[in-house]
């Protein structure tokens, strides 16, 4: 059984702060600073160029990938790290389109993170494909025989609504299409099972629930049935079958290694390793149970004490990730007041108060405190909109 | 005048090592570990999500870019950081092709770094363009009226041969084409003048002469005449005109900002900042003079004392970067012996011993020591090929 008191103690959480924004940027593992300092002092500084072999920098993207694989229901050797999530979306989408050369339609939804849609729009323009964007609830009906790729973010960044990955993937496959899943708000938040869902490609970032630090590297997964045939457009030397042969022609590396592009971000990966030292001991079923307990308690508390707020997330926990949204017409001002009182969530236009619950370090005390402070702010009405807008401009 | 004794003292150079491989990975600035530790403790750990504004993470890619701009003859607001060099090559090349929609030929040379050629090959296949690769000396004659983009690395990674950037750019422009320059072996090594050469796009990495650490982020420069019209295929949210409006449609940010893609690598950028604190005080003319003095002394010393070695770099320093190559039939074994004796260069197949001279921290004592050790190794012939191959397999 996972000891969540212990995992909470492994993070630096500022005194007096209830941090419910780990779905934007996770807090720092206490061991991260030492891990990075050691990498710099013992590896970069002393080994210099030999660190690529001696310290294992060259194989680090795959070794770190293997540790993430367990958290998302993937197998060893199926995940590789590097670049940013937007770049990984580009790689997955361009590779998927190449696997369906007779089809040119990409389907996504308006709940997808905008950057995913921008990347898809860029690919569609370049390759002569069409991007269709429908409402999240209209996705299933929009899957038709012309579809090349279904590209969705599993958990909606504003509402926390969780798509049914196995069902939608199966629908896409029935229609002869491939399914790409963005796990930005899933990895480390819910019990993802990529192989169980029979997904085709998946991508995600590591600076949210996975606590890798600001701008931490992304990951990409390819189902084994595609790994040896996927053709990346982004052909970089680290994805070459023999990078140090310096051949003039590109030959993709075996399997997921071909999704590497340039030189891996070694310092950033060492910070992420400190977080994975914690994750290695976490049971994902226990994590999911705790996530549901936290979000259920928060919804119940807010609805009991804050009648002005309207739930903006699915009520059924099975259809929800690890975050909860509530709407309020003066949402921005309310969130500013909350942050000033030490309860950190965030605001998404036009009116959503968004609270992320990271089971690794958030607990029921965080929930109680957040509900209590939120109720007090709304009751006192001291969060006068003008005043908080003014304050927000200053800070 | 730049004080190179002081700049040398600013780096950690392992005791007893003569490091002539800064053209692969630069050594660590002494201040880098503290800078990164401070970023982690004071910014990530304490500010959490508010660091994007409070600590300036969001504007860091441009601010760091401005400091690099001075080193490569570019202006303020023209350079932005992020991703890897291969990704930046992709961005520059796809944007350049879009500016010449009636032409589909990309010209490069066999002296270009393989990853650049792989990226170009991937783009060519995806967009229906043609990549032509000729010998470095045949580039000028190969520029014809069908050319869309000339894409070259200024300084050859094996030979150190430096292309004439102003002349080749002018030839490309006369032919109606655009010119992209990869500065991987130029930035921090020679006196680059992008605006003076009237180049169109430039890209580079920061882990070589710029000492940003293993996998440090890349940079991209767009000439101001293209900055507002260049259309990136890699459309990421950080390159959007209003990233936090979360619009569903992409609108490119003004100028070079549109070349940003995903979330910037904040920890890695802070290590690079420690190096730029040194670079800020370096006069690039003085740097170039010192580079020439070092490489000239090395060539003269080796040719005087090592008659078996054949120079593999241009003899004219004006046509050379800050590295020198020599050929030897047992080059691999000789380099292993050199490294064992504390003189670190590297080997490039089939027979090249490559020595990088980083004017910021290498000095004439490094040159003397390298020549002396190299001469002794060749004279003693104790570097028996079999033996050193065996040693290399073990270490």
From TrEMBL, chains A, B:
Keywords: Hydrolase, Pyridine nucleotide biosynthesis, Pyridoxal phosphate
Gene Ontology molecular function, alphabetical: kynureninase activity; pyridoxal phosphate binding
Gene Ontology CC annotations of this record: cytoplasm
Keyword Hydrolase included in the entry's annotation: yes
Gene that encodes the chain: kynU
Function description: Catalyzes the cleavage of L-kynurenine (L-Kyn) and L-3-hydroxykynurenine (L-3OHKyn) into anthranilic acid (AA) and 3-hydroxyanthranilic acid (3-OHAA), respectively.
Family, as annotated: Belongs to the kynureninase family.
Residues where pyridoxal 5'-phosphate binds: 85-86, 113-116, 153, 182, 185, 207, 237, 263
Modified residues (N6-(pyridoxal phosphate)lysine): 208
Taxonomic lineage of the native organism: Bacteria, Pseudomonadati, Pseudomonadota, Alphaproteobacteria, Rhodobacterales
Enzymatic reactions: L-kynurenine + H2O = anthranilate + L-alanine + H(+); 3-hydroxy-L-kynurenine + H2O = 3-hydroxyanthranilate + L-alanine + H(+)
Example of a GO biological process term: quinolinate biosynthetic process
The keyword Hydrolase belongs to this UniProt entry's keyword annotation: yes
Cofactor(s) demanded: pyridoxal 5'-phosphate
Signal peptide: none
Quaternary data: Homodimer.
Its EC number(s): 3.7.1.3
Enzyme class of the recorded protein, top EC level: hydrolase
Organism: Paracoccus hibiscisoli
InterPro entries associated with the record: Kynureninase (IPR010111), PyrdxlP-dep_Trfase (IPR015424), PyrdxlP-dep_Trfase_major (IPR015421), PyrdxlP-dep_Trfase_small (IPR015422)
Domain of life: Bacteria
Annotated metabolic or biological route of this protein: Amino-acid degradation; L-kynurenine degradation; L-alanine and anthranilate from L-kynurenine: step 1/1; Cofactor biosynthesis; NAD(+) biosynthesis; quinolinate from L-kynurenine: step 2/3
Pfam families (UniProt xref): KYNU_C
Protein name, per record: Kynureninase
Transmembrane domains' residue ranges: none
